[in-house]
Write a structure and sequence with these properties.
Oligomer: single chain
CATH architecture: 3-Layer(aba) Sandwich
CATH topology: Rossmann fold
CATH superfamily: Vaccinia Virus protein VP39
Distance between the termini: 74 Å
Strand content: 15-25%
Largest sheet: 8 strands, mixed
Shape: globular
CATH class: Alpha Beta
Helix content: 25-40%
Radius of gyration: 20 Å
Order of helices and strands: EHHEHEHEEEHEEHEEHH
Length: 247
């Protein structure tokens, strides 16, 4: 049974409750207008593949557990299957209409109506992803605190890492209800949660993704151990070894 989640940083529960209530109302109204459509998710056409690929590139996903926060209609699972990613998937959302459609599309998958700031699941996932779910901000005055709370909460739920995207402030135009975030601000906050952070602003012009890694261990020469595992042969070490003289 899920426990009640309590903020570690003392953020106002009323503030994020009001945000979640208004966000849920926004998406339910969009669903009434558009039904099963990317428009209901306030997601432009043609961007899903880039968004999902960027999340999947955080690390090795095969034989791991993946949590999709704000899963919408479960499209992430479509891409995982299409691209041959063999992971145990869980999708959660605060909009009951979205969860109902997701369950219809993938009857055998694990979809839940769940707000991780109100409930504290007694389980963890290797990877926790969020795609586009923090872009709408009905109450902009409280949204930055809400984002920090969500990042901390998702990091609590992961054993390997978190990948989240945001609308960037490096744009020429911002929609009225959209919340654009400074990449520098997100990076700075992420570094308070973990030493190993990566920021990608290379896949869409107006959006970026932040990676937060759980394992912060380093080698004797200060390379993160998980990154060191991905390196090919260390030519620097080989070149520093004495050469045999065959003459």
């Amino acid at each position: 049974m899920d426990r009640v989640y309590e903020s570690k940083k003392g953020f106002s529960k009323k503030g994020y409750t009001d945000n979640i209530t208004k966000v849920t109302k926004f998406y339910r109204n969009e669903f009434k207008k558009y039904g099963y459509s990317l428009a209901s998710l306030d997601m432009p056409k043609g961007g899903q593949a880039a968004r999902f690929k960027t999340k999947f590139e955080i690390g090795h996903l095969d034989n791991t557990r993946v949590l999709d926060v704000g899963c919408g209609f479960g499209h992430m699972l479509d891409y995982m299957k299409a691209w041959g990613i063999n992971a145990q998937y869980t999708g959660i959302d605060i909009c009951p209409d979205f969860i109902e459609i997701a369950k219809q599309r993938h009857p055998d998958a694990d979809f839940r109506l769940l707000n991780i700031l109100d409930n504290n699941p007694e389980e963890t996932w290797d990877w926790v992803f969020l795609v586009g779910a923090l872009n709408i901000a009905p109450l902009k005055d409280h949204w930055w605190d809400f984002i920090k709370e969500m990042l901390e909460r998702m990091f609590d739920l992961c054993t390997q890492g978190v990948a989240v995207d945001f609308l960037s402030t490096y744009v020429d135009f911002q929609k009225q209800n959209a919340f654009h975030v400074s990449p520098e601000g997100i990076f700075s906050f992420a570094k308070t949660l973990t030493k190993r952070v990566a920021l990608r602003h290379d896949y869409m012009a107006y959006e970026f993704t932040i990676y937060l890694y759980r394992n912060q261990s380093v080698t004797s020469n200060h390379i993160f151990i998980e990154y060191r595992k991905e390196l090919p042969n260390d030519l620097e070490r080989e070149n520093s070894s004495p050469q045999k003289n065959n003459s």
